[in-house]
Amino acid sequence: MKSDGVEALYLETHNWGKAAQFFRALGFELDFETDHNSGLLRNGDGAYLFVAEVPEDRPTGMQVVIKVPAEDTFDAGAPVEVVSPFEDTHFGTREMSVRDPDGRTWILQAPPGK
Questions:
Q1: pLDDT of residue 2
Q2: What is the CATH number of the domain that holds 95?
Q3: pTM recorded for the entire structure
Q4: Distances 2 to 35, 59, 75, 81, 109 between C-alpha atoms, Å
Q5: Mean pLDDT value of segment 81-110
Q6: Out of the domains of life, which is the source (predicted)?
Q7: Which of 36, 25, 28, 37 is nearest to 9 (CA)?
Q8: What's the domain range around 27?
């Protein structure tokens, strides 16, 4: 399987407003904002940022999302540990989680299934 590179960075924050302000000061433009303290920001043609607010008592995290051209391009025989198989997302794509040799989890994102 070949990837199409980094699709996005998923970031968690304790303050959506301050995080959005920070990235806008760095030249990102707000593409859209949700009604639950999250949103998507872009800066040119590179990977986009999706920032989501989490409760103060929860640690923040960050996830790299790798784009794959289609779900069926993933070789189940590849030396990749599958954490969770492809599933539909609420935003219209399919995502799968895999683990690298050092224990990091990566998200593979494919277009919707046919």
A1: 77
A2: 3.10.180.10
A3: 0.79
A4: 35, 32, 10, 16, 12
A5: 89
A6: Bacteria
A7: 28
A8: 6-110
